[in-house]
Design brief:
The chain is mainly alpha-helical. It has one domain. It has nine helices and no strands. Helix 4 packs across helix 7 and helix 4 packs parallel to helix 8. The model has no long low-confidence stretch (mean pLDDT 87).
């Protein structure tokens, strides 16, 4: 009775370490597969469309409303200190540094990580992955590498587009609802927004895209048998990818903006 809590903590710790080790091995296997031929361009092109182009509407709508809401919140907070004029600059910096990459990554995680995990998990349940091995096709090269590369390339583009749409959302609210002069709003945005603010968000987008696709492929490849196994893999992929995005965002912010 006394040792039961200790044993529970020990089992949880061992399971956590085993999971970290398994994901690390999958990461290194993916990197090795990227560096050696063959490369499946058709699968890569399809993944670009699925992950990048098809995710644009949800990312655009999310960042548009977030930019507008951010402008309202900053205006309300700044009014307490007679600092309403900071709305354009804070909206631009907040969208470029944090909200654009994080929201874009989360939307892609919700849409893409679940889709990848479900697709690959279903292929495993129906023994299509075994069929690829029988045909002398490496599943890592055929399934994982194209999706990971496509996400790493397309998510930064989504982040850049999302930043622009989010800043535009703040502009619409600032000029139409809060009474800002359009020319002055744009000038404040351009004066305070630096190139590193934009580039840091794009770099974050590349890291988030890599993590989302990697986690989705990992859970799909390691899904259990049957519909319940695929369902658990899909749920775990979304949760894991979301947590990894927040953790990576903190680490990258610490590296980029800590003097």
């Amino acid at each position: 009775m006394i040792l039961t809590p200790v044993a529970t903590i020990g089992r949880s710790t061992l399971a956590l370490l085993a999971g970290i080790g398994s994901v690390s091995l999958f990461f290194f296997r993916t990197l090795a597969a990227m560096l050696t031929p063959p490369f499946y361009f058709r699968e890569f092109a399809q993944a670009l469309i699925t992950i990048g182009y098809n995710s644009l509407p949800v990312v655009g709508m999310t960042t548009l409303f977030t930019g507008g809401a951010l402008a309202l919140q900053i205006y309300a907070g700044g009014a307490r200190f007679n600092a309403e004029e900071v709305v354009p600059s804070i909206v631009a910096i907040g969208m470029a540094r944090e909200l654009g990459p994080v929201l874009g990554g989360l939307m892609v995680a919700a849409r893409v990580a679940s889709s990848i995990a479900a697709e690959i998990g279903t292929m495993k349940v129906t023994e299509q992955i075994d069929a690829l091995v029988t045909l002398s096709t490496d599943p890592m090269k055929y399934l994982t590498v194209p999706r990971v590369l496509a996400a790493t390339i397309s998510v930064p583009i989504l982040v850049a587009v999302g930043d622009s749409i989010g800043i535009f959302g703040g502009y619409l609210v600032g000029t139409g609802r809060l009474g800002f002069n359009p020319a002055a709003y744009l000038k404040n945005t351009a004066d305070f927004l630096e190139m590193w603010d934009i580039m840091s968000g794009i770099i974050k987008g590349a890291v988030f895209g890599f993590l989302v696709a990697l986690i989705g492929c990992y859970h799909g490849m390691n899904s259990g048998r049957g519909a319940q196994g695929v369902g658990r893999a899909t749920k775990s992929a979304v949760v894991s990818a979301s947590v990894m995005i927040f953790a990576a965002n903190y680490v990258l912010t610490e590296l980029f903006f800590t003097a």
